[in-house]
From TrEMBL:
Name assigned to this protein: Methyltransferase domain-containing protein
Keyword Ion transport set for record: no
One term of GO molecular function: methyltransferase activity
Ranges of residues in domain Methyltransferase type: 47-146
Amino acid sequence: MVGDDSWESLADHFADEAYASAKGLVRTTVLHQQLLEHLPAPPAAVLDVGGGAGHQSFPLARAGYDVTLLDPSAAMLGKAQQRLRKLPDDARHRVTLLQADGENADEALDGRRFAAVLRHGVLGYLEDPEPLIDQLCRCADAGGVVSIMAGNAHAMAVRPALERRWDDALASFDASSEIGVLGVPTHAHTVEELSDLIRDRGIEPARPLPPTQPNLPPRRTQRSQLTGIAHPHRVE
């Protein structure tokens, strides 16, 4: 079941501006290279939950992976469809678009399991991430990879400081939420917090991925990035 499309008014900004910016391009490119260090060889099946317009998962389709992009927003899937038409034929045929809420991913996918499950950049839009994380972990095959990228609660002061908003930067040291670049509230998490959540669900955290801002110490980068490996003998 899919509710109202809260992303309809944000789709253009998100897909055509935020991800098309220099920052967006660098982030997706660096994260793509880091993902390849953890993923099994293509054509392994990859699920991108809340994958939006496919900025992170379409490069994986180009690399030979079988990609399923699941998103609740018809507007965002429309953006994905536009970008999908620009892929080479072989990559385009490896992509499936599916409209569904991430919290219902297992049901929407009829229990299918994936070699890798991604949730990048949009975990922070949820008040309570745990039902979604339940689904990410459930959809990963035994020995599969779960990859999460979210706002880093240790580094909430970085963006306002870079923008010289000093009062906001000082206040951010004690904050775990903010108004993000899209003008809507977002919540931040730490690698430690996310590690505990996935470990409780049978996913063993691997080392955190290197920061997407390599000149900053890991605890001060704006994004927390984590991969985990599904235990081969877990019971669902």
